[in-house]
Design brief:
It contains 4 helices and 22 strands. The strands form 2 sheets. The chain has a 14-stranded antiparallel barrel with strand order 2-3-4-7-8-12-13-16-17-18-19-20-21-22. A hairpin with a 4-residue loop joins strand 2 and strand 3. It starts with 8 loop residues before the first helix and ends with a strand. It is mainly β and 415 residues long.
């Protein structure tokens, strides 16, 4: 029996992009290439603006994309969010639909004194939702291979920032300690031999006998340990124009892999443990924001992540986002007209995944959002954002994935 946990990531790329036409079911073919799909580290308001806001320092921005954003907060605040997503995959012949949801990030900011702010949060770094079925008939014993992988990498993020007049500087450290990726590799063996004769048992690659009514299954768990630092800066000109930049350093994460196969399940073998060093890429981002007054604001962001340095065959990625916000109501808290915010935006990003045809995967999306304040003005708000997007191309990548994501958040502040 083969230990599928040892199958290299390159094979995953082959299974995903080269053999998709043999797959009768899938969650997402664009989420698993070693560590999962990289998350965009922005808050819900930024998502409603297409993902932009790296330079938008207005005491409302909980994004960890730029650590210097913390310095804009003058009072304690927190934000939690939840998302649900519906994916629709089309390979040109069939269409598959799946829905999933999870808690997003939880973040808190704590001003210590004038101009000095600390922050902490729990947030996902990658997301993984992958399912593949492939019929393999080239071996002596035909079988159907099913691969399922879920989870992702998460981090506790701790940051601090300082404000000096129009300049804000900050840094944070993402401690990767709770991210888990779970994989299940199952072989459903044929009940007949390679010549069509009936067999009461099958032989694995090591000539061990396997009863034909039992399948071969390997369960593979990957946990992660590491840390990634980031630095950021924001300069504002007259409180109208904001310029921001952030750099996240490349780092190495230790991945512990635990393999528990079929023979371990029935007591013939022990669990197998091993470790692997994963490289996490450096990234550079810049942002521009324009806030002429109370009613509206606009933002534009650009980010480049250097995935090519982490593993052969991967691609560097680009993330470009832009959007605006319009606010109804009155800034005076004594009036009855509470402020309601509307947001809209769009984004383009390329993905790092290896592909069989050497064609990089692109993602396009648009977003709309609304924010409703609590009855006690200034205490917090409820925000809802919906995103529509598309990934991949049937001709270049074997399938197109369309998604609709809804994100809900609660934000609160203490005077």
């Amino acid at each position: 029996m083969n230990h599928f946990g040892r199958v290299p990531v390159a094979l995953l790329g082959f299974l995903v992009f080269g053999a998709w036409v043999d797959s009768p079911a899938a969650k997402s073919i664009f989420s698993f290439n070693g560590v999962g799909d990289a998350e965009r580290r922005v808050d819900v308001r930024a998502r409603g603006m297409g993902g932009a806001g790296r330079a938008l320092a207005d005491s409302q921005n909980f994004s960890s994309a730029n650590p210097a954003l913390l310095a804009a907060f003058s009072r304690a605040g927190l934000q939690s969010r939840f998302f649900v997503q519906r994916r629709s995959l089309d390979d040109g012949q069939r269409r598959h639909v799946v829905s999933d949801g999870d808690i997003g990030a939880f973040q808190i900011v704590l001003p210590i004194r004038s101009g000095t702010v600390f922050g902490a949060g729990l947030e996902p770094l990658t997301d993984l939702d992958f399912d593949l079925v492939r019929v393999v008939s080239s071996t002596a014993i035909p079988y159907e291979l099913r691969v399922n992988a879920t989870g992702g990498i998460q981090a506790f993020t701790f940051g601090a920032a300082q404000r000096w007049g129009n300049l804000m500087l900050g840094g944070n450290l993402s401690i990767i300690s709770i991210g888990t990726i779970k994989e299940t590799w199952t072989k459903d063996f044929s009940s007949s031999g390679p010549n069509g004769d009936s067999k009461s048992f099958l032989l694995d690659s090591n000539n061990r006998q396997i009863p034909e009514h039992l399948n071969s299954e390997d369960r593979y768990v990957r946990t992660h340990r590491g840390a990634q630092p980031a630095l950021g800066a924001i300069f504002n000109r007259n409180g109208v124009w904001f310029f921001g930049a952030a750099i996240r350093a490349a780092t190495t994460v230790t991945q512990t892999r635990i393999l528990r196969n079929f023979f371990a399940e029935i007591g013939f073998e022990e669990e197998m443990r091993s470790t692997l060093d994963l490289k996490v890429p450096a990234s550079v981002g810049v942002g521009l924001a324009y806030r002429p007054g109370y009613r509206w604001l606009a933002a534009l962001d650009y980010e480049r992540a250097f995935w090519e340095k982490t593993e052969s065959g991967r691609y560097n990625t680009t993330d470009l986002a832009g959007g605006f916000l319009y606010r109804f109501g009155d800034p005076d808290r004594r009036t009855a007209r509470r402020p309601i915010e509307l947001t809209a935006g769009a984004h383009y990003r390329s993905l790092y995944f290896k592909t069989e045809g050497n064609a990089q995967i692109d993602e396009l999306g648009v977003s709309l959002g609304i924010s409703l304040p609590f009855e006690n003005r200034g205490a917090g708000s409820f925000r809802y954002v919906i995103e529509f997007g598309r990934r991949g191309d049937v001709t270049a990548h074997g399938a197109t994935e369309r998604f609709v994501m809804q994100t809900f958040s609660l934000s609160g502040w203490l005077n």
